[in-house]
Write a structure and sequence with these properties.
Elements: E1 10-11, E2 14-15, H1 20-25, E3 34-37, H2 40-49, H3 68-72, H4 77-84, E4 92-101, E5 110-124, E6 130-142, E7 148-159
Length: about 160
């Protein structure tokens, strides 16, 4: 019997609800890592969407931290969903974003992105049925000199 205490339907040949062991094994999963540069036009568009004036000194608007770290780490929301066993409509909810700006992010600078899953916790109903898993991933951005300039930690809830 699966970890949920009930039938575990398969989706694409995989259990719809990952086992307790699979959830615990998520911690330490690493994204491929890579690089990402934000050019002036992209920063201008993102800044304009927030109805703000461009920042001084070609600084990036902080809104880039929604997508640039994921792209810099050479991953995607789809990959994270697949790794964590989520994906059916409405099954994943956002718990939190934590953005740490440790330096200045600027246009036309190539940043290195590295990260992975840092926590995974399973939750159960009183009858033992799996209700959800909370998973957090963190990605760090480093400048060309290797100095850490930003860290983003995102927590998602995977409803089971």
């Amino acid at each position: 019997m699966p970890a949920s205490g009930g039938p575990n339907v398969e989706i694409d040949g995989r259990p719809a609800i990952p086992s307790d062991e699979d959830v615990a094994a998520l911690v330490g999963y690493r994204f491929a890592g890579g690089e990402r540069k934000v050019e002036h036009w992209e920063n201008w568009l993102l800044t304009d969407c927030t109805q703000r004036k461009p920042m001084t000194g070609r600084q990036l608007h902080p809104v880039v931290l929604f997508h640039v770290p994921i792209q810099a780490a050479s991953t995607s929301i789809g990959e994270i969903f697949a790794v964590c066993g989520g994906g059916r409509a409405g099954s994943v909810t956002l718990l939190s974003y934590e953005w740490e700006l440790l330096g200045v992010l600027c246009e036309d600078v190539v940043y290195r992105g590295d990260g992975g899953i840092v926590s995974a916790e399973r939750f159960r109903a009183p009858d033992g049925a799996v209700t959800h898993d909370d998973v957090a991933f963190a990605i760090e951005l480093s400048d060309p000199d290797g100095k850490l300039v930003a860290r983003v930690t995102t927590r998602w809830r995977f409803l089971r």
